[in-house]
Structure prediction request, 421 residues.
Amino acid sequence: MNTKQLFAPTRTEISGISIADLASKFGTPTYFYDAQTIRDRIAQLQQFDVIRYAQKANSNIAILNLMRLEGVVVDAVSTGEVHRAKAAGYDLTQADHQVVYTADIFDRTALDLVVEHNIPVNCGSPDMIRQLGTAAPGREITLRINPGFGHGHSAKTNTGGDTSKHGIWHEQLDECIAIAKEHNLTVAGLHMHIGSGTDFEHLSQVCDAMLQTALKVGASLKTISAGGGLPTPYKNDDVNIDVDRYFQLWDAVRKQLESEFGHDVSLEIEPGRFLVAESGYLLTEIRAIKKMGEKLYYLVDAGFNNLARPILYGAYHPMSIAFTGESTSEVQDAIVGGPLCESGDIFTQEEGGFVCSRELPVASVGDYLVIECAGAYGFVMGSNYNSKPYAAEVLIDNGDVHLIRRQQTNDDLIAGESIPS
Ligand code: LLP
Prediction:
């Protein structure tokens, strides 16, 4: 249990740098990431043989480079993510599987890419096995199995069970092994990921499913992957996951398989959120405060074009105020919204789109509002809706402040468009 409040209602700094200075240097809205928080989370997972970062959570090449320098390898779900990994210095050709391609389909460019660079593939459908086997027989592959159950913080992040499109249905395992054999592919890895932000009980259920599945595949297996899904705290009463206990459960499965197969089995974990969520802050400025009937609105200069999790899942993000004028300890209930011409552009909403208010410090126009725990699925799920440019991203490392992506310009917005002549 946390004794100290994780999230305070006000703040003056991010990673030890004054918010006023950050805002005047980079403007708002801007994403800031604290490098040390990422390193701390990596350190917590060191017991696993391989930490494979699910870069979909935050794929800025500076973040990927940080991961690489810490010995973390990556997962890629598109040719774009493979390209990012390469740009961040990952070696596609190395036998130690620095980059693995995980998906439920190959689009044609992805199939060409994994064949050309010999990138290891985690197959999420029988068709992927066939297509890879036809184009590049004789390889080792990993199968992503849907164990028939799943769990997530929202129905939209549940990736197991028959309402999920992900993975190979557990009852189709034999058929998939046969397809692999037909194409001279060896099933060398198994992978399960049942959902994002799931709870400990469900995560540990995956261990049993993995054990049973792995025993059916047999001694060709060299690797098992626990997938991602480790939850992180977003609220003061959220409890941190017991990583050691989680590792013990997986290690027991691995050891059982090793004694069964008579050789080493490598244990991978594939988190996204866990590594980056808490490192990220979306700094916004309050540009208007207004009342609609009895309801009070703080309107900031970031919208769901910058952070889509609240409108998509009703996700809760902690928020704090950085005063520019006099500070106060008084609080009031406010609804926090953005600038977009869409009534769903509200950061304080529950799943289903129900607008709710949040107790926040009494603030003034010109104060900053920081949306916290925004490092995972924040920037990467942004858009140019309403022709809003992508925000800048900044990495703060040991007091050094690095711009790792400049804000888009208006010309960036129309680059690639053309008027027929
Ligand atoms: N591995 C696979 C195969 C995945 O599909 C995912 C997430 C992960 C690992 C990493 O999951 P994590 O450790 O981050 O929970 N946009 C949603 C989350 C979608 C996750 C999709 N797959 C959100 O903002 O909560």
In short: The mean pLDDT is 95. The CA atoms of residues 248 and 411 lie 52 Å apart.
